[in-house]
Amino acid sequence: MANRRRGKNYFKRAEGTPPPVTAEIKRHVHFNEVDLLGIVWHGRYPVYFEEGSEQLGRRCGLSYKDFYESGLRAPIVQLHVDYFQPLRLAEEFTIRTVLVWDEGSKLNTEYYLLKNDGSIATSGFTVQLLTDAGTGEVCIISPPLLERCRTRWKSGEFHIKNR
C-alpha cells in the first residue's frame, strides 16, 4: 500500500485485476457537523467515509444487511485521513468511494471528499477484515458473499456508469 496524498491512490492496483468499483453521492454540510467557525469538525470526516461505504456496499452486494445475513462482520482495522481544505456549513460536496481489488478476505477502500470545483477537501482509506460473526475469527478463505461480489466485479457488472 502506498501512502499517497492529493488524489493519488492509497492502494496499489495489481496488474491483471479488475478496475476499482466506484460510487458517488452528493450531500451538504449540516449545521450539527460544524464547529463555532462554521467548518466541519475533523472527527466528522470518517462518518462521511462511512456514508460512502454504505452506498458502495449496496451497489456491490456488500451492505451491512448482506454481511449480517451471511454471518459475517467487517470491522475496520485501519483508518487514515488526509485533510487538505475545510468543508463549510451548507457547502455541497461529493463523497467518492473506491473499492480496490484484493485477493484476501478484506476490503481496501479509498475515499475522496470533493468540493464542487473538483478539488479534494479530504481523502483517506480504510482496511476491513472479514470475520465470522459467531466466533470473531478472521476469515482465512474468502467467504461466499465476497466471492459472489468478485464474480460480478470480474464480469464488468459494476463498471456500467452507475454513480
Describe the secondary-structure layout.
Elements: E1 21-28, H1 45-60, H2 64-69, E2 72-73, E3 76-83, E4 92-100, E5 106-115, E6 120-129, E7 131-132, H3 144-154
How would you characterize this protein structure?
With 163 residues, this protein is of the alpha+beta class. It has one domain: Hotdog Thioesterase (Thiol Ester Dehydrase, Chain A), CATH 3.10.129.10. 20% of the residues lie in helices and 30% in strands. It contains three helices and seven strands. It has helices at 45-60, 64-69, 144-154, and strands at residues 21-28, 72-73, 76-83, 92-100, 106-115, 120-129, 131-132. The strands form two sheets. It has a five-stranded antiparallel β-sheet, with helices on one face. A two-stranded antiparallel sheet has the order 2-7. β4 (92-100) and β5 form a beta hairpin. The longest helix is centred in the N-terminal third of the chain and has 16 residues, at 45-60. The two termini are 26 Å apart. The model has no long low-confidence stretch (mean pLDDT 93).
CA radius of gyration is 16 Å
Gap from first CA to last CA? 26 Å
CATH class placement: Alpha Beta
- Number of helical elements: 3
Question: Largest sheet, if any?
Answer: 5 strands, antiparallel
Q: What's the number of domains? A: 1
Brief summary:
This protein has 163 residues and is α+β, with helices and mostly antiparallel strands. It has helices at residues 45-60, 64-69, 144-154, and strands at 21-28, 72-73, 76-83, 92-100, 106-115, 120-129, 131-132. It has a five-stranded antiparallel β-sheet, covered by helices on one side.
